[in-house]
Design a protein that fits this description.
The chain is of the alpha/beta class and 345 residues long. 37% of the residues lie in helices and 19% in strands. The protein contains 10 helices and 10 strands. The longest helix has 27 residues. The chain is globular. The model has no long low-confidence stretch (mean pLDDT 94).
Length: 345
């Protein structure tokens, strides 16, 4: 069964064709970074306009790469939530129209669940064939930070999430303030490779009130890095802020915040398999730290499947169709999903 997947939740316009929920036949991703870089963040109006301009050609290229025609497609899946509402509507409307015109099934997908599914795709003949439920999910994208127990492809129990900023947001905001580059995660990761992570010792949040062992907070770290840098300097010349050292010190603390919550989830659940997903899952320091934990089975998608892509949408869409489910064409987009953030205490 060949599924067309369409992803337009933020600033990547993406389409892919995946066979039987596993094998990627094509995966086309058009990034809007050049259009948003001057603003150091995504401008929703620009994002939705570019999706409208690009979506037809991106889908067409997916067919060209897969050497298929529209008649070869058995179903269409598209991201319906969460994300930027205007962007979501472009891909969702295109997918529904395609499904209606071809009289084939349509599936509306959750963007976060699709990220978690990405590690199960076959990419350049690399597959995680032995991945079994339950496992712990580590979902770290631009707008969400979630630690969950995955019981099935569409059934997760959230163990921890952010009480304020997500990890990706913190990377972007720190990078924007110090003009390191956009997107922040990529540039901070690159700068950190030549930096000393011990120059600054930034604090970890103290979520000491009950029920937050697996939650994270990045607002305090962001404030410390932007407004209180000298207070946390351990070595070096006052007044001079070496960006590689700052990037390395920030990244180290940001990842440790995430890992502290994750390791609490491992301890509480007894589950030793961790599956990562989302753009921040491409971070090299996060991967290195988890590779050190030999007692854990840590599974990452390849970097090209960590960011937003159509293959993960097509893959999870197949699982719904395999189960005999499809979405009504009246379904619409929603910007948020309940439960993906928590209040403190």
């Amino acid at each position: 069964m060949k599924i067309l997947g369409i992803e337009t939740s933020c600033d990547e316009c993406a389409a892919a064709i995946v066979e039987d929920g596993r094998t990627i036949l094509s995966n086309v991703i058009a990034t809007q970074i050049p259009f948003h870089a001057e603003y150091n963040g995504v401008v929703p109006e620009i994002a939705s306009r570019k999706h409208t301009e690009w979506i037809y050609n991106i889908v067409n290229e997916a067919f060209v790469q897969a050497h298929l025609s529209v008649s070869d497609i058995d179903g269409v899946a598209a991201t319906a939530n969460p994300g930027l509402l205007g962007s979501l509507l472009v891909g969702l409307t295109f997918a529904k129209t395609f499904a209606w015109a071809r009289r084939i099934p349509f599936i509306a997908c959750n963007h976060i669940l699709a990220h978690l599914y990405a590690a199960q795709l076959c990419n350049n003949h690399l597959c995680n064939d032995n991945l079994k439920y339950p496992f712990l999910g580590l979902l770290v994208s631009g707008g969400h930070t979630i630690i969950c127990r995955a019981l099935d492809f569409d059934n997760i129990e959230i163990l921890g999430t952010t009480i304020d900023d997500a990890a990706g947001e913190a990377f972007d905001k720190v990078s924007k303030h110090f003009q390191m580059g956009y997107p922040g995660g990529k540039y901070i990761d690159g700068l950190a490779k030549s930096g000393d992570s011990d120059v600054f010792s930034f604090p970890l949040p103290n979520l000491h009130k009950g029920g937050h062992r697996c939650d994270v907070s990045y607002s305090g770290l962001k404030t410390a890095v932007i407004n209180q840098t000298e207070q946390f300097r351990k070595k070096g010349t006052p007044g001079i802020i070496p960006l590689p050292d700052l990037a390395a010190s920030f990244q180290k603390t940001a990842v440790e915040i995430l890992l502290r919550a994750l390791f609490n989830a491992v301890e509480d659940s007894g589950i030793k398999t961790v599956v990562a997903g989302g753009g921040v899952a491409a971070n090299s320091y996060l991967r290195e730290r988890l590779a050190e934990k030999k007692e854990l089975n840590c599974i990452f998608p390849p970097p090209e499947l960590c960011g937003d892509n159509g293959a993960m949408v097509a893959g999870i869409g197949f699982k719904y169709l395999e189960r005999g489910e499809q979405s009504p064409l009246c379904v619409t987009a929603s910007a948020r999903v309940k439960g993906f953030k928590r209040k403190y205490p």
